[in-house]
Request: fold
Amino acid sequence: MRLTFVGCGDAFGSGGRFNTCFHVEAESTRFLIDCGASSLIAMKALGIDRNAIDTILITHFHGDHFGGIPYFMLDAQFFAKRRTPLVIAGPEGLADWYERVMETAFPGSSGTRQKFDLELRELAAGTTASFAGFEVTTARVRHGPPEGPFHALRIAVDGKVLAYTGDTEWTDALIDIGREADLLIAEAYFYDKRVPLHLDLATLKEKLPLMQPKRLVLTHMNDDMLGRAGSLPYETAEDGKVIGI
Reply:
């Protein structure tokens, strides 16, 4: 399995980084984890074959994680000439949020009939779902009102486990998501400032013994964290960085 950080930035372009989007190449499938507003630009810059992507997993509906969907969809329809099926999977309310984001970006676009099959699959928190070539277990996390909804993901693919906190303050739901994962991608928005709805590195460090991932990569960092990245005892994400698992 090979993971590319298409984008690992926050909502505000800290460090000039693209919004969150991870591309996973497995033996029998390709999928995205999140698709922030700038993701199509970043994918094209990296030469990623968008038509080979079978599934897009969405953790929550903020623009820096979901806002790239209209650009991906219209590019697929009119320029990439996609013909193969696509699954977009995300938290409860996905169908309504899909229409909302499409209509906000390009009024009238949600009613356009694609030349490929599109499935919108809603994932309840605390469940496991099967997709082409992998399984996903979800957990509710805290990045806003509980009904947000906001998910962390634990993905089983090619005999490995990939875990992702999504955006969240610490919640014990993350323990099972990250437990002994081959790769845990964790938000570390702040260094040691504890604020609601985001995870800081100090808290993450305190909780790591409960998860014991085999490899940890920090992502979604603000300018303060990015300024410390070179001196941290942890691996950090960068746009375009590729990891083999």
